[in-house]
Amino acid sequence: MVTQLPISLHGGAKGSARTQFAGLCWRVRRGKVQILLITSRRRKRWIVPKGWPMEGKTPAECALTEAWEEAGVIGIASDACIGVYSYARVREGNDSLPCLAMLYPLQVKSLQNDFPEMRQRRRKWVSRKKAARMVDHIELKKLILGFTPPVQALAA
């Protein structure tokens, strides 16, 4: 069970927070869970793929679409949100927008080398512990460390 932390609105009013859908991209190699991290476009920090709601798509489908666009992920999305993390999205002009990202597990079946943002980001497979050290957001660190894939995925 993951311990939930209080969210931060990063100085914004409660009505100004925006929701995004994020994907925790994972696979099992040699019996160990690995997490796929990508770099942000501007600041090159290690993050998970995420983006805004899309008309006609479920939150999990949005997360999977973002994972394709940002990391070339082909996979299976779980409809079960495993948690929420908060962060301040820095916009042009250096103002920030408080965001809440709902995190959905995405089992990666393959990675494509030709994807929309391939020239803007790096991607890297790492252990859960290393992924938690690499990301900045405390809530995201805890969600990564607390993630356990379905038992059938570990047996495969």
UniProtKB/TrEMBL annotation:
Known cofactor(s): Mg(2+)
An MF annotation (GO) of this entry: pyrophosphatase activity
Family matches, as InterPro entries: DDP-like_NUDIX (IPR047198), NUDIX_hydrolase-like_dom_sf (IPR015797), NUDIX_hydrolase_dom (IPR000086)
Domain Nudix hydrolase: 18-148
Keywords, ordered alphabetically: Hydrolase, Magnesium, Metal-binding
Coiled coil regions, renumbered to chain: none
Magnesium among keywords: yes
Gene Ontology cellular component terms for the protein in this record: cytoplasm
Pfam families: NUDIX (PF00293)
Protein name, as recorded: 8-oxo-dGTP pyrophosphatase MutT (NUDIX family)
Organism: Sulfitobacter undariae
